[in-house]
Write a structure and sequence with these properties.
The chain is an alpha/beta fold. It contains five helices and seven strands. Strand 4 and strand 5 form a beta hairpin.
Amino acid sequence: MKLLAATRSAGKRPEIRRMLEPAGTEVVFPEEIGLWETPAEDALELGETFEANARRKAEYFARLSGLPTLADDSGLEVFSLGGAPGVRSRRWAGATGPREVVDAANNAELLRRLYGAPEARRRARYRCVLVLLRTPDAVPERFEGVCGGRILEEPRGTGGFGYDPLFFSDELDRTFGEATAEEKDAVSHRGRALRALAAALPAVR
């Protein structure tokens, strides 16, 4: 089947392809089918939950494309910060521009908020919610993945994106920035959500 992955994120795209294409799903992204970015998309991630944002993106792109559509919203939740940055993970520091600039600003803000905090206050998790619409009018299907860890006092590794160099995975015993793509896929929030979704896709083939 052909599945539209409704994301503009250059970091998420290879993860989605690695997880879904080996099972026979043809993954396409908006630009590949002529859906170029518009100002209307700025309002799609203003919800208060990951699920709300993912659902709005899925509905928007499914209507435009007519294709089965997958959308995700995901982020970092630091428990001692009340779950922040949460749904604001990508926009937390208010920076704009290239991904590297935005990531650097967000990481600096995270380090500032946790400056001097003991390890117990650095506990965090990544969380991902996926919404699948098999047709534009279908009942949304929801898939979720989480992974636990803690925030380090300085970054390690240059892999991944977002907060990955600061997120020390409990299961990998290293940061996502230090992990290989395969290691990260095996335990990450998005990897887990995508595996759950992949298991549900054969029903429509």
